[in-house]
Amino acid sequence: MDLKHIRDESIRAAKQLGVGVSPTLALLDAGLEMRNADETISRVLAMNAVAATAYGFDRAKAIAWLNQEALTDSLSEQDMRFVFEGAGQPDRFKMQVEGMWALAWAMGIASELNFAKDCDNRFAMTLPNLKQSQSSADFRKKANPRSLEQAVAACDLAYCLHWAIRQSELAGKRPPGNLKPYVVIERRRALEWLLCK
Question: Which terminal residue of the chain has fewer beta carbons within 10 Å of its beta carbon, N or C?
Answer without folding.
Answer: C
